[in-house]
Specification:
There is one protein chain. The chain has a 9-stranded mixed sheet. A 6-stranded parallel sheet has the order 3-2-1-4-5-6, sandwiched between helices. The protein has a two-stranded antiparallel ribbon with strand order 14-15. Helix 5 packs antiparallel against helix 10. The protein is globular and about 75 Å long. The protein contains 10 helices and 17 strands. The model has no long low-confidence stretch (mean pLDDT about 95). The protein is about 35% helix and about 30% strand. It has helices at about 15-25, 40-50, 65-70, 80-95, 110-120, 135-145, 165-170, 185-200, 315-330, 335-355; strands spanning about 5-10, 30-35, 60, 75-80, 100, 125-130, 155-160, 210-215, 225-235, 240-245, 255-260, 265, 280-285, 285-290, 295-300, 300-305, 365. It has 2 domains: about 5-130 and about 315-335, 3-Layer(aba) Sandwich (Rossmann fold); about 135-315 and about 345-365, 2-Layer Sandwich (Dihydrodipicolinate Reductase, domain 2), CATH 3.30.360.10. Strand 11 and strand 12 form a beta hairpin. With about 375 residues, the chain is α/β, with parallel strands linked by helices.
Length: about 375
């Protein structure tokens, strides 16, 4: 029988519904248990999802403590609120469980460093849940960036990730509580934009960051307001800049754009691929020339596509995430790349928040 990674889900969150199916379709993993503070809630969660996407053996409903004590669980997926993640990541690592953690991973880089250190001490893998990092589209994108002639030297990165939150979200969702999710839209959405920039720049950190919070509010029980709309700029060595916008107030947009000395590329759906059987991006090499009185701007675009389904299909990015993580667990060797890039993302997020508190003053990041 093929050996598989045995998963537990620590928290019956909405995002875990997608990942229930991703584990099921990964072929390298199976789900052993789902935990909630109230095991009856976990039981209802399991019954509902088992009807839509069944595992051969029905997962166990249990408490957090019972899940971490379970001897037949190798890895734990933790979609708990940001303010609760550190303690449970640390306890999972101390129990010898590999950890896949939702983002933002921690309240700050110091806390995340402690989490990663404990994982290293206990020889377990740490990875965050940024799904687009596991899309096959990124390999095609890297080939274009590295090839040189189509994009040339990178000069500018830009992007937006936003959705128009309904009134119920703005008054009730945990992302509107500074006690649970103090980073607001910067943590929930900005994390992806920061990660994309770091990935494009081959894991280099920006040297300076500037951030402005454009609007903020909270639900009634929140001690403080949280960012609901923000812009931020990252400055890298070599004259490369990045400018981003994230928001709970403008309707669905999730584009990423890279401009260079020879051309540019655009992803319209870099976080959540549009529904279908392929993911793609556009490379543009426009040409301007003058012929007497005629000033001609020629549009030269070609689309690069990768066969990859959305919605938890066997080759979808979220399924690839769980497949890749499971393969690391089964290999017996942890991959240091994943905690390192999580830490770098958290460092930049911290700098953005520090800049916002200083009225968009530039904040220098030590290298």
């Amino acid at each position: 029988m093929q050996k598989v990674c045995r998963w537990g889900i620590l928290g019956a969150a909405t995002i875990a519904q997608k990942n229930w199916a991703a584990i099921r379709n990964s072929s390298t993993g199976t789900l052993v248990a789902v935990a909630s503070r109230d095991s009856s809630r976990a039981q209802a969660y399991i019954q509902r999802l088992q009807q839509e996407c069944p595992f051969p053996e029905i997962p166990l409903a249990c408490t957090y403590e019972e899940l971490l004590a379970h001897t037949e669980i190798d890895a734990v997926y933790i979609p708990l609120p940001t303010a609760l993640r550190a303690q449970w990541v640390i306890r999972a690592a101390q129990a010898g469980k590999h950890v896949l953690c939702e983002k933002p991973c921690a309240l700050n880089a110091g806390q995340l460093q402690e989490m990663v250190h404990v994982c290293q001490q206990h020889g377990v893998q740490f990875m965050d849940g940024v799904m687009f990092m596991h899309s096959q589209r990124l390999h095609a994108l890297r080939e274009v960036l590295d090839e040189g002639s189509q994009i040339g030297q990178i000069k500018r990165i830009a992007g937006q990730f936003s959705f128009r939150a309904p009134d119920q979200f703005l008054t009730n969702d945990i992302r509107m509580s500074s006690r649970l999710e103090p980073h607001g839209c910067l943590g929930d959405l900005g994390w992806y934009l920061i990660r994309f920039a770091i990935w494009v720049m081959e894991s280099k950190l920006p040297v300076q960051v500037s951030c402005r919070i454009l609007s903020q509010q909270s639900r009634s029980d929140s001690p403080h307001v949280v960012p609901t709309e923000a812009t931020f700029d990252l400055l890298f060595d070599g004259g490369v800049s990045a400018g981003f916008y994230c928001s709970f107030l403008t309707e669905n947009q999730q584009f990423a754009h890279v401009s260079g000395t020879h051309g540019n590329l655009l992803l319209d759906d870099f976080v959540l691929p549009y529904y279908g059987s392929k993911v793609d991006f556009r490379v543009t090499n426009d040409h301007f020339h003058v012929e007497g009185t005629r000033f001609n701007m020629e549009n030269h675009v070609h689309r690069i596509s990768v066969h990859e389904y959305s919605n938890n299909a066997p080759n979808a990015q979220e399924t690839n995430l769980f497949r890749n993580f499971s393969e690391i667990v089964l290999s017996g060797k942890v991959d240091p790349y994943w905690p390192e890039i999580s830490l770098k993302t958290q460092v930049v997020l911290d700098a953005c928040l520090e800049s916002a508190r200083q009225h968009a003053e530039l904040v220098t990041i030590s290298q």
